[in-house]
Design goal:
Aspartate Aminotransferase, domain 1, globular
């Protein structure tokens, strides 16, 4: 066995971390210990949707922390009923299960889809069809459902029952659907896959395909949901595209560990007592934060702000693309999940942006992503564009050197 390189850290070496550490945050700004400010267009990877140190969330967390943190799901937890009602009233769903993360929500989605067919007397229906470029989490079933083979390397054989198709190619999808298909899992707007968005027409066609084949449609709205596109959920833009099951997380807790699995009564029919559970999922502390976050996000003012700021950013990014066609290839995404395909290595470009005090995320297809807080102002968006333009200048000079 090769020797393991020695390191000065006691943390497992699974992250390629930037050489930055932050002491505090406020809104869309992060500050290092020496007071240096960075404009945050990463937002914990589309997680701090209401910004850092949001006062309403702090108040909700503090109030609940002084009362009760955790009990167990063997008891009634009123906060779960309150948040579940908010989610179901605002969506296709009838029932909700609360988790600690997006990955856990995906795991339950996959289990529920297979269990649905089992309960219907069709235990052979286990196949889940996913798509290239997709990302559904890091647990074993989630990486098998995802479209990145690199995440499986070295972890043994693929799990049975997971098939990959081409994103947006419904003829290819139909060719893969067969007697053992349980469902389809897809992000209406891909995050890590390069901010690729399905059109309204594509979503409607996908819904029709799944209904016609008698299989379940699972949406992964962990990144693109909870207001990120300017509607509460990304599929809300296209009428008649409701899923059977949907996973959400990230902005639902604004950084507090919280996720949820939403489903219709029909799709959740196989999930009976004993088929699933969670120690921490839906505890009183998480529910207090989730309720406060939901009540802030699901408003006309906040969702309207997302649409306005996204419109401004896309307009300005189109101008940057015209002026820096040697740097920027394409602008894509939806709402405040914006992908910018660049010519320089995107990791190098991210470092150049940090040198300009701008934090941006990476993505597939050599994209960088802008996923700021949903309450970002137009003035803050203007500053982001100014810093991004300076980054393009840096990249141009580096290419000419």
């Amino acid at each position: 066995m090769p020797a393991t390189p020695q390191s000065s850290t006691h943390l497992m070496g699974v992250y390629s971390r930037a050489s930055l550490a932050f002491e505090r945050g406020e809104g869309v700004w992060l500050y290092t210990a020496d007071g240096t400010a960075y404009l945050d267009c990463v937002a914990g990877i589309a997680t701090t949707g209401l910004g850092h140190a949001n006062p309403k969330l702090i108040a909700a967390l503090t109030e609940q922390a002084n009362k009760l943190w955790h009990v167990s799901n063997i008891f009634q937890i009123p906060g779960q009923e309150a948040l579940a009602k908010r989610l179901t009233d605002a969506s296709f769903a009838d029932v909700v299960f609360f988790t600690n993360s997006g990955t856990e929500s995906i795991e339950l989605a996959l289990k529920a889809a297979r269990r649905y067919h089992f309960a219907k007397g069709n235990p052979e229906k286990i196949d889940i069809i996913g798509f290239d470029g997709s990302f559904h989490g890091r647990s074993y079933a989630a990486v098998n459902a995802s479209g990145n083979a690199a995440y499986l390397e070295g972890f043994g054989p693929r799990l049975p029952g997971y098939i990959q198709s081409t994103f947006g190619d419904w003829e290819a999808l139909k060719a893969l659907i067969g007697p053992t298909t349980a469902g389809v899992i897809i992000e209406p707007v891909q995050g890590e896959g390069g901010a690729r968005a399905l059109s309204d027409t594509q979503l409607r066609e996908l819904r029709q395909i799944c209904t016609g084949a008698g299989i379940l449609l699972i949406y992964d709205e962990i990144q693109c949901g909870m207001g990120r596109t300017g509607r509460l959920f990304a599929h809300d833009w296209a009428e008649g595209t409701e899923p059977d099951i949907m996973a959400v997380a990230k902005a639902i807790g604004n950084g507090f560990p919280l996720g949820a699995l939403l489903a219709t009564h029909e799709a959740a029919g196989g999930m009976v007592p004993g088929t699933h559970g969670s120690t921490y999922g839906g505890n009183p502390l998480a529910m207090a934060v989730g309720i406060a976050a939901f009540d802030e996000i699901n408003t006309d003012a906040l969702l309207g702000n997302v649409r306005n700021v996204a419109g401004y950013l896309n307009q300005q990014l189109a101008g940057l693309r015209d002026r820096y066609s040697d740097i920027i290839v394409d602008i894509r995404g939806k709402g405040l999940l914006i992908g910018v395909k660049v010519i320089p290595n995107n990791r190098d470009f991210m470092q150049m942006a940090r040198d300009e005090g701008l934090l941006i995320a990476g993505g597939g297809d050599n994209c960088i992503r802008l996923v700021p807080a949903l309450n970002m102002t137009i003035d803050e968006a203007r500053q982001a564009i100014e810093r991004l333009e300076k980054t393009c200048e840096r990249a141009r000079k580096a290419a000419a050197a």
